[in-house]
Amino acid sequence: ADPSLLNQQQKKKRAHIEFGPTAQFVRNVGIVIECCECNKWRVLYSKSKLSPFEVSILERYLDTIQYTCGDSFEALVENVEQNESNINGDENSEHDYVGEIFKKVKVDDGLICNNPTEISYYSSGLFEEICFQCGKVPEDECDESDRPNLNEGFYYYCDECHTTVSSKKKRGKNTKFQVSKRSRK
């Protein structure tokens, strides 16, 4: 494939989240959401840092939905607002805050289940390491030094993906991971 064409496609995809998916925009939210179809974690982005109150509301809301790769939060909020107006007329519900939060918080709705984990998941340094291709968490008994792809400067691939993926993605020099989980929804 033509690299310049791929670059143009990636720029078009970024239009879905209205700004470049940087590690800082990931840290402003600090939450990932799991696709209910492929079980991959997708990163949430915001240009401005969310308050603890906003994070709390966002986490509670994300617990109530089934996210699928390609969904936009704008569409999800519209569905919630329609359901809320049908159920009750309470204008001060928590979902009013959700609508405001989703004016700031975005997910890359250009991603589909076949896409690997976003690089910003890793570069943010917030989340535990997972397979770049399928999103599986490494087995606990597996020692990091036994993972050849880490030692060779590549992102982590589980045993199955390490065998099946022919062109593995190289990582940046200083990518560090959390030992424990952080705000996965």
Strand content range = 5-15%
* Average pLDDT: 77
The counted number of beta strands is 3
**Which structural class do you get from the secondary structure elements?**
mainly alpha
Low-confidence stretches: 6-15, 177-185
Largest sheet: 3 strands, antiparallel
Q: State the helical fraction.
A: 25-40%
Question: What is the approximate shape?
Answer: globular
State the end-to-end CA separation.
35 Å
How do the strands line up in the largest sheet?
A: 1-2-3
Q: What Rg is obtained from the alpha carbons, in whole angstroms?
A: 18 Å
How many helices? The count is 8
Spell out the helices and strands N to C: HHEEHHHEHHH
Please give a quick description of this structure.
Helix content is 37%, strand content 6%. It has 185 residues and is mostly helical. The protein has a domain at 3-128.
3D architecture notes:
This protein has 8 helices and 3 strands. It is globular, with a radius of gyration of 18 Å. Helix 3 crosses helix 5 and helix 4 packs antiparallel against helix 5. With 185 residues, the chain is mainly alpha-helical. It starts with a helix and ends in a 21-residue tail after the last helix. The protein has a domain of 126 residues.
Throw out a few tags for this protein.
37% helix; mainly alpha; globular; single chain; disordered C terminus; 8 helices; 3-stranded antiparallel sheet; 185 residues; 6% strand; 3 strands
